[in-house]
Design a protein that fits this description.
It is built from 3 helices and 7 strands, in the order E-E-E-H-H-H-E-E-E-E. By secondary structure, it is of the alpha+beta class. It is globular, with a radius of gyration of 15 Å.
Length: 107
């Protein structure tokens, strides 16, 4: 079912904002390690095509993930899944040990 406009926010069935829905799907993929710690998030164009939404919706959906420490912004890679979640580890090794980018902070 296509999302419908409710005022200025796009919603999916159940009244959830579209950006919130996309963000929750990405969050679920991070916590279930579909998107592994220390690895880049798929490119914006891939997520736009997959979810069938605009770039601004995907960009907005990443804001809470960045605020929660799940995503980090890397100048050349885009968004990278944090090596560790603030509430507990996502990975058992540092990103460098996993072959990931060495610039990811690992507390």
């Amino acid at each position: 079912m296509r999302p419908t406009a409710a005022g200025r926010s796009w919603t999916v069935p159940g009244g959830v904002r579209l950006a919130t829905h996309v963000g929750q799907v990405i969050r679920d993929r991070i916590t279930s390690r579909v998107y592994p710690a220390g690895e880049p998030l798929p490119p914006l164009r891939v997520l736009v095509r997959e979810f069938g939404v605009s770039r601004s919706v995907v960009w907005e959906s990443t804001k809470p993930l960045k605020a929660d420490g799940l995503l980090l912004r890397h100048p050349f890679l885009g968004y990278v899944v944090a090596a560790r979640h603030p509430d507990g580890p996502l990975a058992s090794h540092s990103p460098t040990e996993q072959g990931g980018p060495s610039c990811i902070p690992c507390p």
